[in-house]
Each structure stands twice: as structure tokens, then as C-alpha cells.
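Request:
Um, any thoughts?
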Amino acid sequence: MRAKFLGILTATVIVFAGLAAPNLSNSASAATSYTVTFDANGGSGVMGKQTLPTKGKALSANKFVRDTHRFIGWSLTKTGPVRYYNSSVVKPKSKLTLYAQWKPTVKTPMLAGHTVGKLLWSDSFTGKAGGLIDQTNWTARYCGHEADNGGGTCHNNEKQWYIPEAIRLDGTTQGNAVITSKKVTGTPANSGPCMNPPCSFTSGRFDTQKKVSFQYGYIEARIKMPAGGGNWPAFWALGDAMSEVSWPRAGEIDIAEQGGNLPMRNSAAVHFSVNEFGGGHRYIWGQEVNQANYQSDFHTYGLAWLPGRMEFYVDRELFWTVTPTNVQGYWSFDKPFFLILNNAVQGSAGFGGNYSGWAESKTEIDYVHAWQLNGQGSVVKKK
């Protein structure tokens, strides 16, 4: 009986050993290579996964891009130090996700009395001639008074149709978004509604509503303004709450607003309600005059925005300050806002003066940037 029992036990051990052996072999085989995944980490573009042998192989060359930044290498976490450089040889010991690391190429501005910090967001409008603006940042608008249409467009007896075709990249080395405004004699194709008939111009307006929100910091655009009476270009912002509480309770910040009949004048304004519940519309404004011809070249227009304070700049020189003291109404300016760029056209006696007979005008926008200011500032990209 004892001999028989030992024979059965021996056979059982052999069977178990036979089952275990293939697993050991598979494990050894899997360890010869691992998959590497690439993350753009704020950039854009496509890079496929790469399989690297454990003995080592060069990483695929970086294919991601990021506006106003240059690629400096790969890290193991989103905010970690650079571990590998472009096309470095890597000997993986496990699966890896590598995160692109970027260095801003935009020079940080100097503002007297302030510390301008890291670049939070930017669009430099680079791309092929005739290309579209970045639709993850901006929406090109038609005319329409609905709050979700960029806060509502084509008020103030304006005589333009807003059409997306009026907004295109120019493809230059500098890179500009260009709003081309034209005098027309009939209703253009794809025009949308004319809110103040008769309309006799086409133009463009685009904004970041429900795509990118801004609260505090230093926000700046570099723009060459359009020439000719009737043009009414602006770089401005409306409160994110437009869709809930409407204008003027949501607040309006006009960072730069110009009339085509006054090339030597730049103005800024803020619009607000009398109290938190409405009570009517009020506004105050400031201006800079006879310092430059804003239609003959590019100039910078900036907002230094802090809790309870807004400062307005041209070419990084302060010309006007707004606080709750001089607003004397409902202060809605400590909440998120979205940005707007447009050129409206009024036929006569409007902000831009009388139409002066031009066939075409151009508003050229080099960039829009947002930095931290005195440690304050946030940008939220929603899509």
C-alpha cells in the first residue's frame, strides 16, 4: 500500500510542474519589449505608440507642436523634469507614458509696479494663408442678439453682416488673424441675418465664449487697426454670466475700442448695471490721444486685471485705472470673462464716424496672450 501511494503522489507532482512551465516561458518573452505612449501635454498633433526593446532604441522624433512654445524634451509626469530628449535612446523596464515639456518663446512683458508671471494662454494665429482661426479657442459669429451668440452681436445700428469667411489667417511669418471688412451692394451668400437693415458691409467677429474663460492676470493683444471712417474695431470681454443674467449685469470690459475716423485716439470703457439686480446701464471710459497713429502699424493693448482693480494699457503704458470707487455701480469684474475681437461698421454718425468711401478695410491681429500678474490669474479651457 505504501509503494502505491508514493507512486500516485509522484505522478501528481509531475502534472503540476508541467502546467507551470509554459507560464514561466511566456513571462520571459513579454519582458523583451514595452510600449511607449506619447502625451502632447498642452500641445497638439498626433504621435502613435512606439514599441521599444528592453535592450534600447531611439524614441520617435517629436511631432507635437504648441503655439508660442518650443519642445524641450520628455518627462515621466505632466510637470516633472525632462528625462529624455528628442530621439534619445531609451531602455524601458515597463510600459511608459512620456509627457512633452515646453518652454515659452514669448518674452514676458514689463509693467511698472507689477510682476508679470508665467504665460497662461496664447494664440499667435500662425498657419497657412487662408486658414481658419483655432476653433478650439474661438467661434466666428453671425449677427444675432441671443446671449449664447457671443453675448449677442450686431447691436447699435450697425450695418454689417458678420460672416465667418471674413476672418482668415494671413500665412505670414509673424502670423496674423485678419478681419476683412467690405462694402457690398447685395446680400452675400452665407450672410445670416441683417439686424439693422439695410446692411451694406460684411465683416467679422470671433470670441472665446464657452471655450476659454479668463479671470485676472495681464491680457494683451497686438493689433493693427483698420483705416477709414465707419470702422469700429474692438478688443473686449463680456462676463461668462451673459447667458444667465444678461447685459449689463454680467459686465463688459472694452480693453481697446477705436473709431476709424480718429486714427490718433484709443479708448477703453467698462459697462455695468446700477446694482446686482439690474436697475439700468451705466458706463465710464478713458482714452489715450495723439500718441500714435493706431492704423499705420501694430500696437499692443493690455488689461492688468486684479481683484477690485483694472488697469488699461497701450504699448504697455498705463493710461486709465478702474476700481469700485469710480464705477459707483454693481462691480461684476471679479468673475470669469470671455474675449472678443471684431470690427463693426456703422454707416453714419456712429462710434467710427461717417463712412468715408473705402471698399475694403483690414483689422490685423498678431496675437492674444494671457499671463499671471502679481501671482493672480487663471485661464480655463472648456473644450
Observations:
- Residues 1-26 form one domain.
- The CA atoms of residues 33 and 53 lie 4 Å apart.
